[in-house]
Specification:
mainly alpha, 5 helices
Length: 223
């Protein structure tokens, strides 16, 4: 399980790194959008003035601004779609860890109680589960923060200060991606440690079954 989870965590990390690289490759989306808006206002003003030469110049300037923005928007669309995929994968991988610990920890407690094993085994299982949850929640929270700042920095949201959020989005994307990858690696380690506890419980159950079978055999011989 730990190896499978580590592979999933690696895939999520690769998506985060790739999307950050594409985000840098996008270019100045806010600057291009602001320039297009400025040229559109200029064209409206020229049409209001009625000067054909100014209208022609304004129309040409607007077309140049639109043509300049078009490839940036295409790259941003790729960044947006890959960002959605990255966010979903990161949340899914964190959810897998949470589901694993909830189910396996309950199984450990039930087996320890049913076979009257050493209660420290169930205690170790619960301790590992408690240690994993802060990593899970913080990883998911960081995904939400990165996505929220990405939305705030997108001029398509019509937020007047969208350009001011670009730097914040980059900084949080860098630090947040590192934190998410660290949290996934820690969860992989905790899953591996929990798997060892499960193996100990299984071995203890086999020993208890053997002891019960031997006891029943000796009782049967005595009768």
């Amino acid at each position: 399980m730990a190896r499978i989870y580590l592979a999933l965590a690696g895939f999520a990390g690769c998506l985060l790194i790739a999307n950050f690289a594409i985000g840098i490759w996008v270019g100045d989306l806010n600057g291009g959008a602001a320039k297009r808006q400025t040229e559109a206002i200029r064209l409206r003003q020229a049409r209001g003035g009625g000067d054909e030469q100014q209208i022609t110049e304004a129309r040409q300037s607007l077309k140049a601004a639109v043509d300049e923005l078009a490839p940036i928007q295409k790259r941003h669309r790729v960044h947006f779609l890959l960002g959605v995929l990255s966010a979903l994968v990161c949340i899914l991988v964190n959810g897998i860890a949470m589901t694993y610990f909830i189910g396996s920890s309950k199984w450990c407690a039930e087996v320890v109680e049913a076979y009257r094993l050493d209660v420290s085994l169930a205690g170790r299982s619960r301790a590992l589960k408690r240690r994993s949850f802060p990593w899970t929640f913080s990883g998911v929270l960081m995904v939400v923060v990165i996505v929220a700042l990405g939305g705030a920095s997108d001029p398509a949201t019509q937020i007047a200060s969208s350009a001011d959020w670009v730097t914040w989005h980059w900084v949080v994307a860098i630090l947040g991606s590192l934190w998410i990858m660290v949290s996934l690696l820690n969860q992989a380690g905790l899953i591996g440690a929990h798997y060892e506890v499960i193996n100990e419980i299984v071995a203890a159950v086999e020993e208890r079954k053997s002891a019960i079978a031997a006891q029943e055999g000796s009782d049967s011989n005595a009768t």
